[in-house]
Design brief:
With about 220 residues, this protein is mainly α. It has one domain (about 10-220): Tetracycline Repressor, domain 2 (Orthogonal Bundle), CATH 1.10.357.10. The protein has helices at about 10-25, 35-40, 45-50, 55-70, 85-100, 105-115, 115-140, 150-165, 170-175, 180-195, 205-220. Helix 4 (about 55-70) runs parallel beside helix 7 and helix 5 crosses helix 8 (about 150-165). The chain is globular, with a radius of gyration of 19 Å.
Amino acid sequence: MKKQVKSQQEITRNKLLKKLISSVMNDGFQNLRMDDIAKNMDVSRGTMYKHFTSKQEVIEGVVSVFVDYIEELDDPNLNSDEESFGVWFQQLFEQSVSLVGKISDVFLKDLQLAYPDLYDRLKGALSKREQQTLKFYQYGKDKGIFNQINEKFILLQDDILLREILNVKYLLYNQISIQQVLYDYYQFKKVQLFKAEKVSIVDDSKIHPIIDHIVEKFNRTLQV
């Protein structure tokens, strides 16, 4: 997908929205006032109103941030070489971790109740991504690169297992760092998905900066 060039206004709006995401994902937004929004964005009410005229516009912006991020992942080239399966697997891993760590049930519930059209838009983007991912897994099996496992189980695993191991309580109870648990889960998925003779097509050196970036964002969220 060709990325559209954003204006400075859009860049500023997105920066403000990303400052708000942690709050609305943890607590929802039903009781959120415009004063609270400005505080979480770390700007004055006047500055906030230059970019957002209402609470609904703010939530529309949050949904757009997620939809844009989901749609950043290009469709895999189904005629590409074997190494590209490793690259796309890593890109998919990064996005899966980011989405599970950010889109919470409480946010989705509030969205469905308050703004059903926005809820349908976000769920539609997630559904399209799911079908895209299933297509990728199935093609990998057809090409003899992936193991013959149920690709729907892999998606369910991300939604349940990944969500659980990213929980702070899980990390503290098991005395494991977020960096280690992500790398372990990455290795687990790689061995689970790729046939033993095809594992070598995945360049693990490329996943380290990806995990480091995710960890940095995770730690920054904890400090909010």
